[in-house]
Amino acid sequence: DTEVTQTPKHLVMGMTNKKSLKCEQHMGHRAMYWYKQKAKKPPELMFVYSYEKLSINESVPSRFSPECPNSSLLNLHLHALQPEDSALYLCASKQLKFCKQYFGPGTRLTVT
Amino acid sequence: GQSLEQPSEVTAVEGAIVQINCTYQTSGFYGLSWYQQHDGGAPTFLSYNALDGLEETGRFSSFLSRSDSYGYLLLQELQMKDSASYFCAVKNLYNTDKLIFGTGTRLQVFP
């Protein structure tokens, strides 16, 4: 299994809603990532988890809250988002010390 | 800091060869990766050059010159399905779990 899965594929939420994005991998990768990507731009790193511990937070606003319940799962909790947070949210994983990252298909988020 | 520059767009016809350049500025270096991303899709890993020279994987090749701080992705026998965005990337010097992506090149292949 060389796949990263993400749910949901699409999400529309209001600025007062609370929602969560989910990511799962069963490749035994101990590094997991959240990226945000706007149209025609490169992925922008948000968070990195290493051995289920948050190792990098790229000064992301607190309305985004990551969680890594176990080595296979990664969540991104969303609350009080702004319309400018509308983007493709990508999850990725990799083996530590290797360069290749495996990306999930992403969640297309629209904040209304 | 680290920055990677790519041309924003490249166009070519089916069957042609195209080269996508990546120029980077970084005081240290752990190798150059390339990712492909189709519209609406996920980035997928294409290649990695740790050392100078050419790495070949089927129709795609990637080249690195560390002395010139330059690399490129070469796509041969272009097909319509190669129309996508291509990103070069390097590992962050201070945290190698972090990738720094280039600005991205949109390749359009015409019949």
Brief rundown of the structure:
The complex is a heterodimer of chains A (112) and B (111). Helices cover 0% and strands 57% of the residues of chain A.
Could you walk me through the main structural features you see in this protein, from its secondary elements to its overall organization?
The complex is a heterodimer of chains A (112) and B (111). By secondary structure, chain A is mostly beta strands. Chain A is 0% helix and 57% strand. Chain A has strands spanning 4-7, 10-13, 18-25, 31-37, 44-50, 53-57, 64-70, 73-79, 87-94, 102-103, 107-111. In chain A, the strands form 2 sheets. In chain A, strands 2, 4, 5, 6, 9, 10 and 11 form a 7-stranded mixed beta sheet that branches. In chain A, strands 1-3-8-7 form a 4-stranded antiparallel beta sheet, with no helix packed on it. Chain B contains no helices and 11 strands. Chain B has strands at 3-5, 9-13, 18-25, 32-37, 44-49, 53-57, 60-65, 70-75, 84-91, 99-101, 105-110. The N and C termini of chain B lie far apart (41 Å). Chains A and B meet through strand 5, strand 9 and strand 10 of A and strand 5 and strand 9 of B.
Oligomer state equals: heterodimer
Could you give the count of β-strands of chain B? 11
Helix-strand pattern of chain B: EEEEEEEEEEE
Shape of chain A: globular
Q: What would the principal axes of the Cα set say about the shape of chain B?
A: globular
The percent of residues in helical segments of chain A reads under 10%
